[in-house]
Amino acid sequence: MVHSVSIANNKTTIYESAVAGGMAGAITRAVAQPLDVLKIRFQLQLEPIRNGSKYSSMLQAVSSIVKEEGILALWSGHVPAQYLSIAYGVLQFSVFEQLTQVCQSADQQFYYTHRHWINFSNGGVAAAVGTVASFPFDTVRTRLIAEQKTKKAYKGFTHAITSMVRTEGVAALYKGLIPTLGQ
């Protein structure tokens, strides 16, 4: 994308960037969701792996989850995860492209001389905007993945988000935002 900005006749539109970001996010999430489920299950596991924990390896964890909860459990929290990935991708790609075009049109010589630092900065700003806007989906996704399928706290995405806001307030949707922005 950055290379296409430098070619005067081949500018990427904000719309094209948004669509590319949304599609990239959706496809990546659909493929990688089982790994995310495994990551969160391992993170929430209290026992050390070597001392008789529920999950001892990735293969054993996948087998255990599928056996106990069904194959679809590997896509727990997939709906909010898709919202997260699509919203983040759309915003990150389009904000980055918009900032880059503004910087380039403001002073082309300065932009080309310092484009690596400008692109680095634009990428950071774009990532921060995408993170803040999509973070509530991340919080809901994590809770849906973390809940035990035999003792469900939520009936789905909509119930989770409304229950969280009703019982804990809107701030509950942004728990952990500061370290995530730092990341």
UniProtKB/TrEMBL annotation:
Belongs to the mitochondrial carrier (TC 2.A.29) family. It comes from Spodoptera littoralis (Egyptian cotton leafworm). It holds the Pfam family Mito_carr. Gene3D superfamilies: Mitochondrial carrier domain. The keyword Phosphoprotein does not apply. It is a multi-pass membrane protein. One of its GO terms (cellular component) is membrane. This is Mitochondrial thiamine pyrophosphate carrier. Keywords: Membrane, Repeat, Transmembrane, Transport.
